[in-house]
Amino acid sequence: MKPGPSLRTLPSLLLLQLLLLLLLLLLTTQGSLAVRRGRTRRELAPALHLWGIRDDGGSYCQRLGFCCQDRNDDCAVPYRGSMCYCDIFCNRMVPDCCPDYWTYCQNAEKDPPVYPGCQHEDQMYHPSETYKENCNQCTCLGNSYWDCEQEPCLVNTELMNAINRGNYGWRAGNHSSFWGMTLEEGIRHRLGTIRPSPSVMNMNKMHMNMGPNVVLPRNFDAAQKWPGLIHEPLDQGNCAGSWAFSTAAVASDRISIHSKGHMTPSLSPQNLLSCNTRHQQGCNGGRLDRAWSFLRRRGLVSDKCYPLASQNSIAEPCRMYSRPMGRGKRQATGPCPNNFHHSNDYSNDIYQSTPPYRLSSNEKDIMKEIMENGPVQALMEVHEDFFLYKDGIYRHTPASNGKPPQFRRQGTHSVKITGWGEELQPNGRRVKFWRAANSWGPTWGEGGSFRILRGCNECDIESFVVGVWGRVGSEDMNHRRYYHRK
């Protein structure tokens, strides 16, 4: 019989066991903390291995002896220098679960397929990685399953194809600067004219004095009657400021025509966006009546003097003010914001207009006004298909009918009508149209312009049409003539 430990050796054995117990407790605590630290980014972490973790001979959850409900970061065992988990969070097909989770915790006959990522155009994505398809973001959920947003895009290829198949009299195309934007973003950032108040909509309409024998031409283009005095279409970018761009565009043409070419300013939309701030919202929308009121009372400088700061909705402070100088005229209080005011092409002259007047909605009244006095400003309702316009005579199509409401959106816009015409169709029918300049840049539509059905108030384009006179006196023309000779 072996003798037992002596009483003298018992304290030493107890002390050694106590030390071993403390060391084991310390290692367990550190391991638990390490698990917690590594678990905090679990949902965003890539797979432990490219195709998911696999170990056919492993029995990790079984060795742990239990599986945890809910997400439990302590429910883990060592795995190939890392940790794998045995909690119910693994049901989301995350790639860091133990290989025997399904057989042991879910009583599956065999493990599910490996946890691959997702493939898109010959590229592999790990779970939680994303890519953008036009305006929608797609997220890899694992097992080749993508979760993609379903927002209607501004460039809608399905709608584009439906329009081009439908023989509506115009063609649709992809305007590259719209790619990646949702339809909601297009309505919010590419329009920007607030519909006038009832009191403005009820202002008296001016009817042109035309006898019964007056014959208007079938085709008219303001640029042909006044060469060099009609300005090119503008580009508002993602600034919802069509109220400022269309006002500046019409005023530029009208002042050029009424001064007989002595003054040909391209007026500054930025001057309006930054300085016409009373009850206006800059690149987030504005009203036409308040824009014309500012042009009458304060005036604008040229676009060269006060160029566009940016084509987005960032608010820019006003950097150009004017003061009265007698007889209703005004002068700038400082140099041009562009810092090139020493050149006579960058003069800080202030240009003003008379109060605007509203025309009747009769197409002949609008035609005669354009032919005699120059381009006019018009409101219109923009629908989802108008963004896709490429060429032809536009009319709103029923191609989106039957789609959910988010696919059928509209908003108020303002444009410059520069002329009209008729087009003979293959069936022998003549189709009447307006010719108008948009403010979406020269690559959109027909060189930045478009044609739209005339005489039927298509998209409300004949419902609110405005004309104006430039405030031009003999002293203005003499001053400009002397100024340019210098």
TrEMBL record:
Keywords: Disulfide bond, Glycoprotein, Secreted, Signal. Residues 63-111 form the SMB domain. One of its GO terms (cellular component) is extracellular space. One of its GO terms (molecular function) is cysteine-type peptidase activity. Gene3D superfamilies: Cysteine proteinases. It holds the Pfam family Peptidase_C1. It is found in: Secreted. Residues 1-34 form the signal peptide. SMART domains: Pept_C1. One of its GO terms (biological process) is proteolysis. InterPro entries: Papain-like_cys_pep_sf, Pept_his_AS, Peptidase_C1A, Peptidase_C1A_C, Somatomedin_B_dom. This is Tubulointerstitial nephritis antigen like 1. The gene is TINAGL1.
